[in-house]
Amino acid sequence: MLELFVAMIKEEWRVHSTMFGSLSFALFPILIFWIAFMGSFLLPLMRQELPPGELSLILHANYLMLGFMVGAFGLLGSEVMNRRFGQASLLTYSARSLPISERRIFANFVVKDTLYYFVLWVLPLALGFLLASPFIGVPVSLPLLLTLTLTLSFLFGLCAVFFLSSVYSRSKPALAAILISIAGIAGLLILITGQNPARFYPPLQLFLDFSWMNFVLSCIAIAILFCISIRLFSPGSPDATKHHKSLLMPLAGKLSIFSNPPLAAKDLIDMYRSGGIVGQTLFSFIIPLVVIWFFLSLLTGYIPPYGALLEFALVTGVIASTMYTWITMFDTFGTYACLPVSVRTVIKSKIASFSVLQIIPGVFIAVVAVLSGQAIYLVPAVVLCLAVSFYSLGVTVWLTGLSPSVLVYDVKVMVVYLILMGAALLVLSAVAFAAPFATLGAVLLLIPAVFFARLGFSKWETREQPGF
Amino acid sequence: MYGDLTAVNHVNLSVEKGALYGLLGPNGSGKSTMIKMLTGQIRPNAGTATVLGIDVQKDPIGVREHVGIIPEQETPPSFLTASEYLQFVGAIRKIPEIDKRAVEWFDLLDFADKKDVLCKDLSRGTRQKLMFAQAFIHKPKLALIDEPLINFDPIMQHLVKDYLRDYVKAGNTIFISTHILEVAEEICSGFAILHKGNILHTGTVADLTAEHRHLDEFFLSLVQKAPHA
Fold first, then answer.
1. In this structure, are residues B145 and B177 in contact, taking their beta carbons and an 8 Å threshold?
2. Which of B74, B83, B135 sits opposite A334 (nearest CB)?
């Protein structure tokens, strides 16, 4: 058991480090640490506008979302074995050749992912804040407590998505029932207490009111989610004899506005048949964003309501851009290497598929605008969201080509991405507060988006791709 | 070159039109690297490669347009059915009447009952059949095949060998890479032996037969005598 766990950790490290070099990958947590350390010095400025309690809300929401995103990327219910446990993760095939059950391998996989991403993402952030605390007049006990509660928040998000995805793989109606129940409980809490249900989030409660009882309750909540997800996990073999109706050419016909309809149709079929179009949309998009919206809505006492909506549109745009990762995760260029298809053509087809998927964030942000009583800002919110998403796509194409989920861990790539995105988000954020309708000008982001995408076409066309 | 490793070195080889040519060598000798170079997958640090008169480095897409390729490891896209994959290939290669041709291949290689099954759920042998079909469905003048009979059962091996022989008889060219010498001896006309990235020998099976020698014994004697063996 321990040997398998250690070997899985080594395997995960080697998968990443062989892709872009050990040094580049090792620098990644250092980059996160540095951002956290430097960012901490902005806290005194932010505290002039927001009470510390509200700042902690945002931090916990961020960590919760990080857990969600990491979990959702790793697991998608029935897709676990087929996708994440793909050819790159050979140890996960051990059940076929060694006397180890798939459930045990799954348990190892979950613990490994928890530890691995904790060291990669959570620990550097926590350490950065801890080391900065003496310089910003924060007692050391506070960052220590925050380290604990943020860790719990991350684990909560991770285990929650494991739980939901395990339920999803067993029964979609059961998942729907659980989500409806959660929404019902949230509604009841609002009715009974008159408070936003995000305030009852266990790790946040622990931070605001530390007690051993609260600590134990948080741990129990996480443990329950983890244990149930292990219990429910069922790799199950897909029905290998199932026949499928031909979708490719009919779908290609509907996508004829794009330059390579069959390639775009293939991407969308990949998403549909893998369960990703529902699973990814739910676990990597809607659920994290709903959680963020709950937390952001707590800030409406400090920022104008349209500000919360437009900030949310920005966040939605950034998360929507990760849909490029969804459509590049099913194949490498090797799939196309036997055919007269250039890298440029494949990237263009991925952009076409991405454009189709942007219906999801477009509709989502429009619904949020209406439900939040800010329908007047519907158009600016949708424009802002989609402009940011396409701009981020252009930058991602330039920086990572057809491997966005891999190259994002390259420090150089990450730094350039953060600078380019940070600059755009900062300007748009300021405009959103100062003159909300001026955010319609965000459509101008399409110019640099096209520019970066074109740079990407040329860059990746001349580089060797992982072929057959 | 891959970093410090020279995968293929000073290779000077030409294959005549209408040949069924075998590139033979042990594991790691550089056979697959050669196929990758010839299809524009990787660029050589020095030298040139020309396929059907097209410079591979200058126009890799042009090469792939005119040849059929069966890689050793690549499998068809997981979430397309076998039938959809051939339609996909047909759409990219702009093949007329692709559905009709696909049916011919399903029948020839005896997997019509699997045509609507997702590629990820197909057995290795059936995936290999599908890869075989995609390589020949546009009737290329040249096919580049890495380990042509791998994953096929004896019946299918027999059928495929016959198909390859007929294909070259019709004036086309086939370039295979293999370490299974019995196959090479049985179907190839010319061959080259590659070892540690260097060509040790080029010749014909007919010449060996005239000398009453077998390819496997000849191959072993060459490779074992080779420097750094």
1. yes
2. B74
Residue B112 in domain: no
The domain tally of chain A equals 2
A78 occurs within a structural domain:
yes
Q: How far apart are CA A347 and CA A327, in angstroms?
A: 10
Answer yes or no: is pLDDT of A87 > 70: no
The domain total for chain B is 1
Question: What pLDDT, on the 0 to 100 scale, is given for residue B187?
Answer: 92
A265 and A148 share a domain?
A: no
pLDDT tens for each residue of A357-368: 999 999 999 999
Residues of B in contact with A243 (CB under 8 A): 81, 116-117
Q: Decide if A245 is inside a domain.
A: no
- Helices (H) and strands (E) counted in chain B, each on its own, are 9, 8
DSSP-derived 3-state class of residue B117: strand
pLDDT tens, A312-367?
999 999 989 989 988 888 777 878 888 999 999 999 999 999 999 999 999 999 99
pLDDT in tens, A170-186: 887 888 888 889 888 88
Average pLDDT, chain B: 88
Name the H helices within A90-243: 94-97, 102-117, 123-132, 141-170, 172-193, 202-208, 212-232
Is B87 in Cβ contact with A248 (below 8 Å)? yes
Looking at the domain assignment, is residue A55 inside a domain?
A: yes
Expressed as residue numbers, the domain containing A358 is 251-468
Q: Is the pLDDT of residue A20 over 80?
A: no
Considering only CB atoms, A339 lies closest to which of B70, B73, B92, namely: B92
Shared domain for A304 and A176, answered yes or no, is no
CB contact under 8 A, A337 and B72: no
Query: Are B47 and B3 within 8 A, CB to CB?
Result: no
Q: Is B113 within the bounds of a domain?
A: no
